Amino acid sequence: MTESSVEALAVPYDTQAADERVARRRQQLRMRLISLGITVVVMIVFYLWQGRSMSGGLFIAGYVLVFAVALGWLAFCWIGLRIARQERAEVGQGTALRIDRVGVELAGTFAAWPQIVGLAAVKGGFLRAERLQLNRTDGEPVSVAFEAMPVRPATIDQTARAYSAGRHGVDLSELES
Q1: Which of 7, 27, 170, 175 is the most buried (most CB within 10 A)?
Q2: Could you read off the pLDDT of 63-92 as tens digits, one per residue?
Q3: In what order do the strands lie in the sheet with 109-112?
Q4: Are 29 and 21 in contact (CB under 8 A)?
Q5: Is 75 helix (H, G, I), strand (E, B) or coil?
Q6: Is 42 helix (H, G, I), strand (E, B) or coil?
Q7: What is the Cα–Cα distance from 111 to 114, expressed in whole angstroms?
Q8: Whether domain 95-176 has CATH 2.60.120.200
Q9: Closest to 136 (Cα-Cα) out of 119, 120, 115
Q10: Which ranges in 7-133 belong to alpha helices (H)?
Q11: 108 in the Ramachandran plot: left (φ > 0), alpha (ψ -120 to 50) or beta?
């Protein structure tokens, strides 16, 4: 039996989760368009059926409110689809993350252990995915969406602690809340 040593954790980019998110957002937008169409048809039918007896400001305000809510949901889904497409475009090719005894490479940016201030999980914000962020002493932070990597955040944390001799781990506190 031969022993093999693990020299590094190399995590390739994985587009599957981002592709699924885009497909889900696209389906939501389609459903909202269908819902808006049905709402407009029902409003027209109701107006033709009861329009003469229901005139006035309250009737018009009700129609405007229903139409505004439907348009608001449609706009929300459209924004979600745009954000999902943008995040899908950010998913690169090749190695997303590499952690070894020398340091960390994230999204093509390498930092040796002495240059690393910390690794942290960052909340994604409005309709965005959570990200792994590498904070360095010299330069801007670099980040990659967790969903673009087929490995769990806890695995990244344990690997960083092991290869940095316990000096660095991933601050996962943002994911807990």
Answers
A1: 170
A2: 899 999 999 999 999 999 999 999 999 898
A3: 8-12, 95-100, 103-106, 109-112
A4: no
A5: helix
A6: helix
A7: 8
A8: no
A9: 115
A10: 16-50, 57-90
A11: left
